[in-house]
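User: Once you have settled down, look closely at the record that follows, taking as long as you need, and be ready to discuss the fold:
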Amino acid sequence: MFRRWTNSHREQENDESQLESKVRRCLSTWKVNELRAALGPLSGQDLKYCSDACLKRYLEARSWNVDKSKKMLEETLKWRSTYKPHEIRWNTTGMDNQIRHLVYLMENAILNLPEGQEQMVWLIDFTGWTLSTSVPVKCARESINILQNHYPERLGASFLYNPPRIFEAFWKIVKYFLDPKTFQKVKFVYPMNKDSVEIMRSYFDVDNLPTEFGGKATLKYDHEEFSRLMVEDDEKTAAFWGFSDKHKHGVGNGYGGAEVVPEPAALVPPAS
């Protein structure tokens, strides 16, 4: 009798859970349709960008308020029309180009996400970081604004690996630019702290995590191979957005490169 009651109780809980999940999906679809109607007719790249999954992310970012989501999304469409993130190529050098490179990395990562996956995990290595080589606060604020306003709900978690003590002073300033929801996703990982390392391992496959981050994978950087793969991704981006890759041979807005570009001497210039 006890087993029968337990099984029946579990079935009831499963039914309730399925019903709740179905109601959430229906409400989500309703809100997405409402937002799409509020946006009005879209065409070209705007239409391609505004998929149901995209509209859902903007709704989640604005607590499912259609008017606020509409305003946020319209600002992103305006930004994309002028900034043209899909036309940025991976070979950049100056500080302004570093922000463009960050945008490129986001666009590239999104393009390569598995079907049905909307979020990603960032692993940022702070080995060798000092205040003299850090990104200026103004640049950091601009980067955060772009990520929060134009890539909402893309971040699943962010791991700051091996940050030096001096970074805490920089972080105290930067964190005020972060949305509270985003702030909760940021996790500090110290190699000598077992608990923080275990948290990171719960997000990453240890077999594929490089040894320098506590994993088992041994990786060797090959710049020519990396350059070739980036060019392939640039071509994939061009195909996705429906235009010929005029940047392939270095023609266009100055961010293109040949099949193999020179290896950069430094990724981040010293702060002035």
Remarks:
- The first helix runs from residue 2 to 39.
- Strands lie at 120-125, 155-161, 186-189.
- The first strand starts at residue 120 and ends at 125.
